[in-house]
Design a protein that fits this description.
The chain is α/β, with parallel strands linked by helices. It is built from 9 helices and 16 strands.
């Protein structure tokens, strides 16, 4: 009998506590929910010109390695990604350069991928003609269209453009200048210095990366990383900025997303104005676009103009192996406020952001240009909650919970005494 009645007492006590605390917050109306994010869009552009017959990657032809990589990428495509495939130099076998330099076709339209159809289309490709890289890039940008998020083109080629004009580097600059939110990543399949310079120029003009793929595994892994990265694009194209070697002459940044390049073991400085009552939030990501030695890291710090460190960022790993990140938060309330200006408006103080890295290149790795850096800066109203270990505004909730606990214990005790008295009488 005791075991049957005690739960009732406890239940009544919990009900009393619930009544004191009040009902839970109402769920947000579905009609006010944000619209679904636009799916990431990527187009793979593959060079199928005659030079792709060369058998110098793991003893296999370049086209065979590329076809295998495409198949594995299609099989591992992240859910929701819209993928297209465009080829160049794949159909015209003649020697008329005018006609051969128009040879680019989209063999898989950008959209949800039919894996069987996509792999079948890639399997039929045979190295054939010229290398109209510039025209293929311009066409790929049209394939991807426009939208609220950045689009990515992944160009895989073993040779420089043989059809300019249009010059592919100039095409990349034109696309970037149009504000098309287009990023071009390039993969080189041949150890050729001219090809490397051209692909670096294309990638640099659009905030993309260049990688030399010297094995089938490297090519497959890199394409997968780039396709997966499309899910992490921002709603605005990063602004190209050049950090300096000291805070005094560093560029002044407003809230936004910026792209830069940083040399191995370098420090790059930027400045951000922060007013009293505001909080600075910043993050940095460095892309590993070439082989580096192990035991590396990225450090993001906020300092005063005199060099005094305000806060040191923490690692922000995402589980990815191609990007190293760090982030920090700093509130102007953490420092003594300056004297108010005659107008009553508190002047902004300058905070210096320092991006440092401990990368070291592997033997034979190109050290120029620097590693791709993406810096995100935001300035928001400072949080009212203090940073210290005290409870701050949490005291109100603590007092409410304490009162609810006392009432619960009192009710449970009274009910228990009533039940004991009743049991003894019986």
């Amino acid at each position: 009998m005791i075991n049957k009645r005690r739960p009732a007492a406890v239940l009544l006590g919990l009900l009393a506590a619930t009544a004191l605390i009040g009902p839970p917050p109402a769920a947000a109306d579905d009609e006010t929910a944000e619209p679904p994010a636009e799916p990431p869009k990527v187009e793979l552009v593959l060079d199928v010109s005659g030079s792709m017959r060369a058998r110098d990657i793991d003893g296999r032809s370049r086209i065979a390695v590329a076809q295998q990589a495409f198949n594995e990428v299609v099989d591992a495509l992240p859910d929701g990604t819209q993928l297209g495939i465009r080829v160049l130099g794949a159909t015209y076998r003649g020697k008329d350069k005018t006609q051969g330099c128009r040879d680019t076709q989209q063999i898989v339209p950008v959209g949800p991928v039919d894996r069987t159809q996509a792999k079948a289309a890639v399997a039929t490709l045979r190295p054939t003609g010229f290398t109209p890289v510039g025209l293929a890039l311009r066409s790929a940008a049209q394939d991807l269209g426009t939208g609220s998020t950045a689009r990515r083109i992944v160009l895989i080629t073993d040779g420089e453009d043989t059809c300019a004009p249009p010059d592919p580097c100039q095409v990349a600059r034109e696309l970037a200048a149009q504000g098309t939110r287009l990023v071009v990543d390039t993969l080189g399949l041949a150890p050729d210095e001219k090809v490397r310079r051209q692909l670096l120029c294309i990638a640099g003009a659009t905030g993309g990366t260049y990688t030399a793929a010297q094995s089938a595994d490297e090519l497959t892994g890199r394409i997968k990383q780039l396709v997966d990265r499309a899910r992490d694009t921002y709603t605005a194209t990063p602004t190209v900025v050049g950090g300096s070697a000291a805070c005094d002459d560093a560029p002044l940044l407003a809230p936004g997303v910026y792209t830069d390049r940083e040399a191995f073991a370098e420090h790059r400085w930027y400045r951000v104005p922060v007013r009293p009552g505001q909080e600075l939030r910043a993050s940095v990501s460095v892309a590993l676009d070439r082989p580096v030695n192990p035991d590396y890291g990225v450090l993001l710090r906020a300092t005063a103009p005199d060099g005094r460190e305000l806060v040191r960022g923490v690692d922000a790993g995402s589980g990815r192996t191609d990007v190293v990140s760090a982030g920090l938060r700093w509130s102007a309330a953490e420092e003594e406020s300056p004297e108010p200006a005659p107008s009553g408006v508190q002047p902004a103080r300058t905070v210096c952001l320092v991006v440092s890295n401990s990368f070291a290149p592997r033997a034979g790795t190109q050290v120029t240009p620097g590693m791709p850096v993406e810096l995100t800066v935001d300035v928001v109203a400072a949080s009212p909650a203090p940073d210290g270990p005290d409870l701050g505004r949490g005291w109100a909730l603590l007092l409410l919970l304490t009162l609810a606990g006392l009432v619960t214990g009192l009710v449970a005790g009274l009910l228990t005494r009533w039940w004991v008295a009743t049991w003894r009488e019986n």
